[in-house]
UniProtKB/TrEMBL annotation:
Transmembrane segments: none annotated. Keywords: ATP synthesis, Cell membrane, CF(1), Hydrogen ion transport, Ion transport, Membrane, Transport. Belongs to the ATPase delta chain family. It is found in: Cell membrane; Membrane. It is a peripheral membrane protein. Coiled coil: none annotated. HAMAP family: ATP_synth_delta_bact. It comes from Microbacterium phycohabitans. This is ATP synthase subunit delta. InterPro entries: ATPase_OSCP/dsu. The keyword Magnesium does not apply. F(1)F(0) ATP synthase produces ATP from ADP in the presence of a proton or sodium gradient. F-type ATPases consist of two structural domains, F(1) containing the extramembraneous catalytic core and F(0) containing the membrane proton channel, linked together by a central stalk and a peripheral stalk. During catalysis, ATP synthesis in the catalytic domain of F(1) is coupled via a rotary mechanism of the central stalk subunits to proton translocation. This protein is part of the stalk that links CF(0) to CF(1). It either transmits conformational changes from CF(0) to CF(1) or is implicated in proton conduction.
Length: 262
């Protein structure tokens, strides 16, 4: 990712932080804008062209989206369009990130945990993953399938994120989209996500102690996603981004075998 895009993402996030009236309707409009912009090479190119004056790009946003979108939505889209992006594709990804962040602002539910849970469901069901992520098939039908699967099982914000992403995957794998969305939501809420592999479910006390230990280590609030994996035998394996803490019995046995063999 270019430095221009990094700065643009930061500026767009700051615009969201200072915006008022951001609710799920605004988030829905942002996702709809992502679909409109990604579906038009002419529009995405015009809005991300740094050779065009920033106020002209903002004017184009107002002309295209102003008549039907809320002022808060148009203001956020205008702010994003006035930044300097490294490419049109990264501009579209920046808008998508903005939509996910807006959902995290508007929705109080535990979106991170719900995204993780749905990702695990997709990972365990090849037919479902193909139905949602296959290049064939109607996009709106995929969104309807997500809504049916999540109805009563997840917050409206989570359903919005998942249905929007699968309808406009742009060739990306569903699980990768869900992991990225989970990371964005956690960042918006100033949290980090720790994936914990354990042989058995953790008790509430164990979860609290682990969260406190990880918070002290990383200096941030921690969301725990637990994966039950009998192969760890005992203990825990914790992954935070690329950092892995492996205190499982299986890891200790593997280390012992290596020492004996070496």
């Amino acid at each position: 990712m270019g430095s221009a895009t990094t700065q643009a993402r930061t500026a767009t996030s700051e615009a969201l932080a200072s915006a008022s009236g951001v609710d799920l309707d605004v988030a829905r409009e942002l996702f709809a804008a992502v679909a409109a912009v990604s579906g038009s090479a002419q529009l995405s190119g015009a809005l991300s062209d740094s050779s065009v004056p920033a106020d002209a790009r903002a004017g184009l946003v107002s002309a295209v989206f102003g008549p039907s979108y809320r002022p808060a939505t148009v203001g956020l889209l205008s702010s994003a369009s006035q930044q300097r992006w490294s490419s049109a594709a990264q501009f579209v990804e920046g808008l998508e990130e903005l939509a996910v962040r807006a959902t995290a602002v508007a929705e109080t539910g535990d979106i991170e945990a719900e995204l993780f849970s749905f990702s695990r469901t997709v990972a365990s069901n090849g037919e479902l993953e193909l139905a949602l992520g296959g290049r064939l098939g109607d996009a709106s039908a995929k969104g309807t399938l997500v809504s049916t699967l999540l109805d009563g099982r997840a917050s409206a914000g989570t359903a919005l994120i998942v249905s929007s992403l699968v309808e406009h995957a742009r060739g990306r794998r569903v699980r990768a989209l869900l992991r990225r969305a989970e990371s964005i939501v956690a960042d918006q809420r100033s949290r980090i996500v720790a994936t914990v592999s354990a042989a058995a479910p953790l008790s509430a006390d164990q979860q609290t102690r682990l969260q406190n230990a990880l918070s002290a280590r990383y200096g941030s609030a921690v969301t725990l996603n637990t994966v039950i994996d009998p192969t760890v035998l005992g203990g825990l394996r914790v992954q935070v981004a690329d950092d892995v803490i492996d205190a499982s019995v299986s890891a200790r046995l593997a280390d012992l075998r290596q020492r004996i063999a070496g």
